[in-house]
Amino acid sequence: MISEPVIMVNYKTYRESLGDRGMELTRAIERHCTKNWVVCPQAVDLRDVVKGTELPVFAQHVDGIEPGSHTGHTLPEAVVDAGAMGTLINHSENTLELWEIEKVVSLCKGMGLMTVVCANNPAASAAAAGMGPDFVAYEPPELIGGDISVSTAKPEVVKEAVERVKRVDANVKVLCGAGVKNGDDVKIALELGTVGVLLASGIVKSKNIEETIQDLERYL
Ligand code: G3P
Fold this sequence. Notes:
The chain is of the alpha/beta class. The protein is globular, with a radius of gyration of 16 Å. Helix 1 (about 20-30) packs across helix 10 and helix 5 (about 120-130) packs parallel to helix 7. The protein has a single domain (about 5-215), classed as Aldolase class I (TIM Barrel). It has helices at about 20-30, 45-50, 75-80, 100-110, 120-130, 150-155, 155-170, 185-190, 200-205, 210-215; strands at about 5-10, 35-40, 60, 85-90, 115-120, 135-140, 175, 195-200. Strand 7 (about 175), helix 8 (about 185-190) and strand 8 (about 195-200) form a beta-alpha-beta unit. The protein is built from ten helices and eight strands. It has an eight-stranded parallel sheet with strand order 2-1-8-7-6-5-4-3. The relative contact order is 0.15. The chain binds SN-glycerol-3-phosphate (G3P). SN-glycerol-3-phosphate binds near residues 179, 200 and 201. The site of SN-glycerol-3-phosphate (G3P) has 14 residues, from strand 8 and helix 9.
């Protein structure tokens, strides 16, 4: 179980989060955070990061496959074997077909892997909720990697995403992400009904990780 509110950090494939630097980043988060954080390291670093931290670790992606001949895919079982507690699915930078998302969620459930299904609008968030994941993360692609946060730029849409998800399945928790950089962004996200945020560049590219973490946790 992941306690709330939660801050999830997607390392993506930034140079700053690769290999030893990814490990350093993880140690820095662990050292300075006082609330509930989850880290999503790069795929090749997953096992090392799990071994090197007490923080919950999620994968960034898995495919809807079972062991066998699937060259270059990410096997959910492999992510479990590496020690991950959960996985992101359908990030807008690595989308899946609807049927595949459904298959992945069901495979992950079967092996006790938590799921965060990303969705780019409220309708997609509702559809994702219908698959029964642990979390739906609403992320408008146009704000990803920018400096204006989803909670500031699209508060009404975040609220709508939360409402639509809850109408489908009240047990599914909602996160939002894109452009989240500071405590105000997190505070607004929570006021809009989410249980936390999913962010990347705000942490991975931070010049002062301690300050950034303190700021993000300011109202938690
Ligand atoms: O998965 C998180 C992400 O897409 C948001 O990225 O850099 O806008 O925090 P960023």
